[in-house]
Amino acid sequence: MTFDRKEVDAEFQKYVARGVANDWSAWADQFTEDALYVEHEMGTMHGREEIRAWIVATMGSVSGMSFPVEWYVIDGDRVIVYCWNVFDPLPGMTGEYKFAVAVVLHYAGHGLWSYEEDIYNAKETDTVLARFLEDAAAAGHASAAPPA
User: Among 47-56, 84-93, 109-118, which is the least confidently predicted range?
Assistant: First the structure.
């Protein structure tokens, strides 16, 4: 089924806004009951409630992350996104702590996504996180909990 490009774009903007708001339960509401979420490092989630349990727990343990979208393309029911996962610096830190993620989304209509896949370099993620934690400790944030 083909969906109107304006509808797909409007729903993608809601997807982004809910992530910006850190409203992860509402973010999970955007998936179909039988959605598939492929996260290459953390596993595959089946269905909205499994996605919700995973994203709420994962992002609940992380504070100070942002996900700026650099670009996206809409092709029918598919949205391809290139964004950054950014660990926002704590007071006294001056570095940049980000890694790139490509996201594939499939729109199912009625404001819902049926598929998401996150693609990124886990080695780069580990390097960025280690540098963030080292710099946080050097800035006096030794008890900074590592982002998930």
Answer: 84-93
